[in-house]
Amino acid sequence: APAPRKMKQYFKQSNVPAMIMEYPLPPQLAREALVRELDGRKALAHFVDAVLEYDPARRWGPDRAAEHPFIRGDWGDTSYATAATASSPPPSSAYPSPDSIASSAHTAHAAPHAHSLAGARRA
Q: Structure pTM?
């Protein structure tokens, strides 16, 4: 019997929230922009985790998803992180803090096409 083929691995992360949080940061972000970027990423990671939940009984429906701060554009609202949710995203301590990456953000090699969530935020 032929050996099973190894699947190609496109990302080093094993889940979508980790992909979102570990995507290269745009170079030379000011501290305020870095905080806004990380807040947006945390909100997006939580939202994606909740709406892509495998268990349909725990998965968020469209009404609940529409009220998420990421969809509303209110990334500073962290009530989603403390409220009981259907999904269990990684604890916020699993995400980098602005202080822990501020110096590395300026020296890290970012992809030339890296886009900031902060730039996509609606006013």
A: 0.62
Task: Please report which residue ranges of 2-109 form alpha helices under DSSP H.
Answer: 16-22, 31-51, 62-66, 69-72, 79-82, 98-107
Tens digits of residue pLDDT in 50-68: 999 999 999 999 999 999 9
Q: Cα 50 to chain center, whole Å?
A: 12
Could you give the CA distance from residue 29 to residue 35 in angstroms, rounded to a whole number?
9
**Among 11, 95, 99, 10, CA closest to 46:** 95
Q: Which amino acid is at 118?
A: A
CA distance 107 to 27: 8
* Alpha-carbon span 63 to 1, nearest angstrom: 50
Q: Dig out the tokens for 70 from the structure.
A: 């990421």
